[in-house]
Design goal:
By secondary structure, the protein is mostly helical. The chain has one domain: Cytochrome Bc1 Complex, Chain D, domain 2 (Orthogonal Bundle), CATH 1.10.760.10. The protein is about 55% helix and about 0% strand. It has four helices and no strands. The chain has helices at about 1-30, 50-55, 60-70, 90-100.
Amino acid sequence: MKIAAAAFAAAGLLAAGAVHAAAVEDLLKKSGCTACHSNDKKVVGPSYMEVAAKYKGDAGAAAKLATKVKAGGSGVWGQVPMPPNPTVSDADLKTMVAYILALKK
């Protein structure tokens, strides 16, 4: 009985993770991020996985990326500028950045 309950709980967590990922991917799309980025392929800008790898272990990464999204910039990934996106709410931005930084190859 305990094994069945544990298996059911694990399945629920996996399903919740999939729902959460889909919700965050919807936020990324709604915010216009997917016009230049994707999870695993360079589009105009780096893939989210490349971003996660670059900032792995950087305790200040979330703050740096939040600033970059709000203010825009260039030079980190080459000369193509990233336009500012000041209309993204701080809550959505925190969710999206956490999702991106959690991605692994």
